[in-house]
Amino acid sequence: MTQSNSRDRELRERAAAVIPGGMYGHQSVGLLPDDYPQFFERGEGAHIWDADGNRYLDFMCAYGPNLFGYAHPEIDAAFVRQLGQGDTLTGPTGLMVELAETLVRMVSHADWAIFCKNGTDATTMALTTARAHTKRRIVVRAKGAYHGALPWCTPRPAGVIDSDRAHQIFCDYNDVASLEAAVAEAGDDLAAIFAAPFRHDAFIDQAEPDAAYARKARELCDRTGALLVVDEVRAGFRLSRDCSWSRLGVSPDLSTWGKCLANGHPLSVMLGNEKARRAAASVYVTGSFWFQAATMAAALETLRLVRETDYLERITALGDRLRAGLDARARAAGFGFRQTGPATMPLFLFDDDPDLRKGFCFSSEMLSRGVYVHPWHNMFLCAAMTEADIDQTLDAAEAAFAVLKRQAPALGPVEKLAFLSGAH
User: What family does the database annotate (predicted)?
Assistant: First the structure.
């Protein structure tokens, strides 16, 4: 991919002239191994092809939107049919009402829906709605938790001023005492507690939510009148066919959804309960493309598949098969290899690897064998994957562990990630 005559290299050089930094956001490969492709040509099922025609089994699933497979025939057919009738119109089609009704039926805490395009749209609407409902300012959220890319929540604060980040108090995820202390600090100015479905911060081990932590968040909101927000943008419909915290017996007041809601077609949503309806109606939120009909048609077909197929059971079984196989192969090769997070959304990290030199080597070796994994971000399984795909991944991993075992003593530091070891 990085050869001077490659299509990817040519596109990178052209991009550098017309796109600041050459690429931006989470789709940039600036913090990935140097051999990772930046540009892709197409996707089908569980696979993607880069600009040079190389094919990969894709465990990033477009950073989450691909739930049922790239270019899914039924979902895309619904999109194309509606596109032929009308998409961006002066007002929405009836599909918007049908989609809202469908989500209200599927998600147990939801009484209404407001649609948008990106996860950040939805989380920011939730923040605004909570403040409108409570007439308060402070939001409590976990340290390191990702809730989007606007100034109030972006993890890279260049250009952000203190007032953009004002009225936020941070706690430790899954730490009841820390949560209680943050709420006490907020006092009578607490508008909302934001929660991730599980701890999915980059660069560190993932953690499932503790039931006591989730129940305490609900209790504190009930006691103070604040709203509980569960941010499902990344995990929605990958852990449950309902809000993920329903598995813990906890219902939020608001939840935010995106990524796989329409299997890659751009759509996000804020769902809420009756308590928050008036506040949601009072805030001004809109976008020129938020009401597109073709995307809503794709979402309705996606949700039909969520309801009527065994996709969740299948990707969970595949994730368990992958986890057990990788554990066995890592142990055989003599590596401490941590797999954390839900089986459907795994993260891989090596023991004794503070600057990810082992992780980068392993990921590059996997890539060279046609398997796209990520060295520091959680990954995703999709329903288009098969047991044969998992077996291919395990074979690639066995070979990658063998290469890493030979090369580990000579691996140099990963300079682009020097900040992980405190050098930046």
Answer: Belongs to the class-III pyridoxal-phosphate-dependent aminotransferase family.
